[in-house]
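for the recovery benchmark. tokens below, seq after
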């Protein structure tokens, strides 16, 4: 079965590595941002931490400094 490649801008969720590439924010910084229970843009699928793209974009655009 061929795996379809979906552009990052069309994905609902991103891996931490994809979110880092998409936003130009470091992997370590994104990991630390998602460690809070009140983080509005993280979702866990089992132990896998995924970033909700639209919420992440909104969060980053509203912050002057990360």
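predicted aa per position
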């Amino acid at each position: 079965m061929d795996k379809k490649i979906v552009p990052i801008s069309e994905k609902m969720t991103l891996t931490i590595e994809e979110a880092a590439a998409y936003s130009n924010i470091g992997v370590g910084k994104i990991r630390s941002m998602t460690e809070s229970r009140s983080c509005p843009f993280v979702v866990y699928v089992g132990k896998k931490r995924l970033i909700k793209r639209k919420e992440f974009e909104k969060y980053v655009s509203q912050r002057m400094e990360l």
